[in-house]
Structure formats: C-alpha cells, structure tokens
C-alpha cells in the first residue's frame, strides 16, 4: 500500500530579516510619518484654524446662552405680568360678584316691598268691597224692613183705622213736613 504523503513546513528558527527603508524599521517609519504630518499641520497653521473654529463655536454657544437668558428674563417678566393680570381679574371677578349679590339683595328687598304693598292694597280693596257689600246689604235690609213696616202699617191702619183717623194722620204728616 501506499503511504500517505504529508507536507510539512518548518519555520526557520532564529532571526528574521525585517524590512527597512532608509535604514529605519517599521516603527521608525511610523514615527517619522507622524512627525512629518505634525510639521505639515503646524506649517499650514491648522491648530490656529482649529482654535479659531472652536472660538467661533464658543462665541456662538455663548451668544445662544445670552439669548436664552434674555428669553428667560422676558418669559419671567411676561409671567409676572400675567400673574398681576390674573390677580386683577380675580379682584374684578370678586367685585362683580359682590355687586351682583348687592343688586340681588336690592331686587329682593324691592320685590318684598312691592309684594307687601300689593298685599296691603289688595287687602284694602277687599276691605272696601266687604264694606260696600255690607252697606248694600244694610241698604237692602233697610229697604226690606221699611217695605215690611209700611205694609204692616198699612195693614194695621186698614184694620183699625177709619176715615177720621186717616185724615188726622195725613194732616199730622203734612204739618211735620213743613218743619223739616
């Protein structure tokens, strides 16, 4: 049978050769590149530009903060103004309520007075009607009584009287009329 073939690689033991450029190893090249970049940045005045940019942003933020503070003061002033207006409105509402209560009391007093006057007037009217009815009843009673008395007198005269007595009564009545 055939034997399987196994490939193996062996790492060389010992030192390896590093790549160099201009006699600098990889860390040296990175350090040199960083120095070159920093020198270019300084030469082009990038830190100053970054500083100016940051100063501009700081100034803008400071301006926004000042504006926010001014807006806050303005809002507080408006709030204080509206609180004063609210208190004035509450005071006005209280005065209106007091005036309404006072007017209602006056209206009630006037209505009570008017009702009492009306009751008194109607009472007088009722009393006057009752008195008129009493007078009418008395007049009717007197008329009825006088009529009954006249009929009774006529009947008595007719029963008891004769012509001479009638003549004497008529003469007496006529004489009495002249004295009145």
From TrEMBL:
The keyword Transmembrane applies. Component of the F(0) channel, it forms part of the peripheral stalk, linking F(1) to F(0). The b'-subunit is a diverged and duplicated form of b found in plants and photosynthetic bacteria. It comes from Sphingomonas ginkgonis. This is ATP synthase subunit b. InterPro entries: ATP_synth_b/b'su_bac/chlpt (IPR002146), ATP_synthase_B_chain (IPR050059). Pfam families: ATP-synt_B (PF00430). The chain crosses the membrane at residues 20-43. It is a single-pass membrane protein.
């Amino acid at each position: 049978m055939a034997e399987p073939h196994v490939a193996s690689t062996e790492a060389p033991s010992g030192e390896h050769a590093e790549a160099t450029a201009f006699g600098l190893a990889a860390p040296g090249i990175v350090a040199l590149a960083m120095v070159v970049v920093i020198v270019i940045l300084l030469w082009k005045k990038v830190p100053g530009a970054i500083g100016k940019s940051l100063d501009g942003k700081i100034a803008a933020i400071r301006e926004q903060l000042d504006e926010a503070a001014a807006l806050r003061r303005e809002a507080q002033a408006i709030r204080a103004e509206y609180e004063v207006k609210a208190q004035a409105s509450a005071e006005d509402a209280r005065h209106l309520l007091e005036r309404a209560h006072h007017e209602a009391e006056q209206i009630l007093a006037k209505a009570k007075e008017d009702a009492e006057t009306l009751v008194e007037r109607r009472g007088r009217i009722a009393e006057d009607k009752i008195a008129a009815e009493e007078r009418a009843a008395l007049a009717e009673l007197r008329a009825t009584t006088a009529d009954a008395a006249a009929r009774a007198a006529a009947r008595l005269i007719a029963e008891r009287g004769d012509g001479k007595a009638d003549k004497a009564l008529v003469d007496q009545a006529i004489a009495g009329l002249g004295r009145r």
